[in-house]
Amino acid sequence: MKKLDFSLYVITAENYHPGKTMEEVMREALYGGADIVQLRHKTAKESELLEKARLLRGLTREFGVPFIVNDYPQLAIEADADGVHVGQEDHGLREARELLGPDRIVGVSTHSLDQAMAAEDGGADYIGVGPVYPTGTKPGRPAVTLNYVRQAARHVRIPWVAIGGIHLGNAQEVLDAGATRLCAVSAIVGSEDPAAVCRSLKAMISSSVSGAGEAEIMLNGGRHRTGSMTLQQLVEEKGLTGRRIVAEADGTIVPREEWSGLRLRSGMTVELVHFVGGG
Ligand SMILES: Cc1ncc(COP(=O)(O)OP(=O)(O)O)c(N)n1
Ligand SMILES: Cc1ncsc1CCOP(=O)(O)O
Ligand SMILES: [Mg+2]
Prior knowledge:
Layout: E1 8-11, H1 22-32, E2 36-39, H2 46-63, E3 67-70, H3 73-78, E4 83-86, H4 92-100, E5 105-110, H5 113-121, E6 126-129, H6 145-155, E7 160-163, H7 171-176, E8 182-184, H8 186-189, H9 194-208, E9 215-219, E10 222-226, H10 231-237, E11 245-249, E12 252-253, E13 269-274
Parallel strand pairs: 1-2, 1-8, 2-3, 3-4, 4-5, 5-6, 6-7, 7-8, 9-13
Antiparallel strand pairs: 9-10, 11-12, 11-13
This protein binds the ligand Cc1ncc(COP(=O)(O)OP(=O)(O)O)c(N)n1, 4-methyl-5-hydroxyethylthiazole phosphate (TZP) and magnesium ion.
């Protein structure tokens, strides 16, 4: 399975749910709409990890969602996972790709736009963008802030997911900064009701991201409901294809080659200025 169509990424963290098993909690998250799952356990022995990976492999198959193993490409293969997630360690992406081949998913953590571009060029299937906020799940890792989320929204062309310190109270501002996929760990697996948190996050994502329905944007100073998913589609919708146009999104001019990668979302301000005549 290499199809990557997800909006809510959930990662295991057993320390956040003492008294409940990993299977129980992840099953609840899947009921709530988690649409990709990662096994992350920084201290387990490989034999223990493999057992957990096999369990999650079975569970994610029941729900038809991709299953990713953190850090261990070889173990991902042994557990028949859909892919692996690697960090910024030297050669991590290249080695993972060599081991997993073209058909499995390789995800990469990034903390800056330069790293994102390198991961894209290196053949990553998706990237993590974060930690957006400081988080106890990854202590000591500086927050990249919403600035990097905004940059990712403008420039990253492969699927990317915002991660780090995201919960129901701040998810909307991450979406408003341009994220269309969220990953939350403690907010979901540490909650009394993981399914309910997942449902709420999914609802926030789908009402914010055009494509799940319609987006309401400000277009040339007026409210405009649109089914267009990207700036390119909006230009087409307005019958401006092939015209000399300057497009601006949220106050910044967007080069033409980025129009098809720029996702529209509710609340966005768009200006489409077209030049009339030959001058
Ligand atoms: C989806 C996703 N994004 C980022 C990470 C973090 O990976 P990494 O930087 O390698 O840190 P560890 O998780 O290995 O501690 C991730 N696991 N998943
Ligand atoms: C693994 C990882 N990588 C960047 S932030 C993070 C942890 C995210 O966890 P939480 O959602 O609990 O902040
Ligand atoms: Mg790692």
